[in-house]
Amino acid sequence: AAGVIQSPRHLIKEKRETATLKCYPIPRHDTVYWYQQGPGQDPQFLISFYEKMQSDKGSIPDRFSAQQFSDYHSELNMSSLELGDSALYFCASSSRNEQFFGPGTRLTVL
Amino acid sequence: QKEVEQDPGPLSVPEGAIVSLNCTYSNSAFQYFMWYRQYSRKGPELLMYTYSSGNKEDGRFTAQVDKSSKYISLFIRDSQPSDSATYLCAMTSTDSWGKLQFGAGTQVVVTP
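Predict the joint structure of the above. Result:
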């Protein structure tokens, strides 16, 4: 069965640079969620989109923005990167209730 | 204090034993409860999904929800070394749909 696809899988950036993370949901899933997981921590909700509209917002810094496109894929844009942004970033998708997670993008900020 | 509390473990059990995991929560609005399994550096994998109170069984996994006590459990029967992972509970409410609140995760080690 098709799963959530995230790219890139690994990303290394310098402080103050920008990064773009991409998420391709499971086919026919209309909702996308972004989570951040720091080392040894549980995933923290960042933002979600339903039918290309932002549906909920969590603890997402103002330096981050995201959108969902007409083909339902989503991109998380991160600017002015800080060392503390180093984490695993997960995308999840759903069509009803259950959320299915992708493999994550590991972002390292040097 | 976090809305969802989960003992981080580690929890070590011998192969074939029953693994018992649980979470408590404080928000009475939570109605949807999930258990995820996460291997190191991988994405969380959905194991069980339950709505409101009651039990749900799927193969070796049984999930229980007791809303009156704000307590959920996951039982894994006939545990295998491949079950060694971190298990995360997660929950959400109708008015904050999709914004999952996770527990800290319990690390489980099944020894051969």
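Residues 4-111 of chain B form a domain with the Immunoglobulin-like fold (CATH 2.60.40.10).
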